[in-house]
Design brief:
By secondary structure, the chain is of the alpha/beta class. The chain contains 12 helices and 11 strands. It starts with 8 loop residues before the first helix and ends with a strand.
């Protein structure tokens, strides 16, 4: 796989995707696996997207590869559960299409609707189309934050906020820096793990020169997602004085055991990332087959506490 050697390498890799599950199975030498073929025959509403650079971390001839299982369309996505709703649970805290204010001291900006990869367990998968272009609401957003002096932290999310190019990220940070009561900028992103080249020298310079304390929260669910390229990108961020945390989602048959999570925590700290949160699944109709029960989650975390040091133990998060 060859790419142009340029500052926009990440954009080339972002565009170089597998958009058909059959193609992915073929690349992984699984195209003769009847079970998987049957699982993906019926179309589902959430589109299929996996960058080829991430596919390289998947194991050949392994239908249970933990990276593959996070992205492969499954017929179980079509099941309906009467007690669930696909309405985003944050809607009650929605100030405007791109703005969520759930806690008094921090605010969430949904910067865009795009993601580098389409994770099948995503709880926002049916909501992303409702996110407006940030340009349409930016004046309102800046004014709202300016008037709410309790807010000292801005969280950028989406979609994936790092889909946005460096130039536009810099413009937004510059606008936010003019609001004196904002002290912390947090960026929640999966992109540097999926496409490590996204951490450009220019982006690092922007973050390093900001007056904000910058915290970047990666989203890594399994140790196999972390390779040498990811570690190099994380080192660049650390040199830019960025604090690195990780949040994971507990996923059935993917990372729902203490040994797997212990390996993840160790691999994270080797990459300079502190394990921060592990979330129970935010349930919607199409992702319930990934669910790990609260009872099992607590048992897993108890087992994990005996396998890793306290600083490697993420906090279990779930709705009460």
């Amino acid at each position: 796989m060859k790419y142009l050697n340029s500052k926009d390498l990440w954009l080339n890799q972002l565009a170089d995707t597998v958009n058909n599950p059959y193609e992915l199975l073929k690349l992984l030498k699984l195209n003769n696996n009847t079970k998987l073929i049957n699982d993906i025959k019926t179309k589902v509403s959430f589109s299929f997207r996996v960058p080829k650079i991430f596919v390289q971390r998947m194991k050949l001839n392994d239908p249970n590869d933990p990276l593959l299982m996070q992205v492969l369309i499954n017929i179980k996505e079509l099941r309906n559960f009467d007690k669930l709703t696909n309405k985003i649970y944050l809607e009650s805290n929605l100030v405007k299409s791109n703005l969520i204010h759930k806690y008094s001291n921090r605010i969430l900006i949904l910067l865009n609707s795009g993601c580098a990869i389409h994770c099948r367990y995503c709880f926002r998968r049916d909501y992303l189309n409702n996110i407006s272009n940030i340009k349409n609401n930016i004046k309102y957003i800046i004014n709202y934050i300016s008037l709410n002096k309790r807010i000292n932290e801005v969280i950028l999310t989406g979609g994936d906020p790092l889909i946005v190019k460096d130039k536009n990220i810099n413009i937004l940070i510059s606008m936010l820096e003019k609001i004196n009561h904002i002290l912390i900028l947090r960026i929640h992103t999966r992109l540097p793990v999926i496409i490590p080249s996204r951490i450009t020298d220019n982006l690092c310079n922007i973050l390093a020169n900001s007056r904000f304390r910058i915290i970047l929260v990666t989203h890594i669910n399994h140790a196999n997602e972390i390779n040498c390229s990811v570690i190099k990108s994380m080192n660049k961020l650390r040199k830019a004085n960025v604090i690195l945390l990780n949040q994971s989602v507990l996923l059935r048959n993917i990372n729902d055991n203490a040994n797997t999570l212990a390996k993840l925590s160790i691999k994270l700290i080797q990459a300079g990332i502190i394990p921060y949160y592990i979330h129970l699944l935010d349930k919607i109709n199409s992702n319930i087959h990934f669910l790990v029960t609260k009872r099992k989650a607590k048992k897993i975390m108890k087992d994990l506490s005996s396998k890793v040091s306290g600083y490697l133990l993420p906090k279990l998060m779930y709705d009460k």
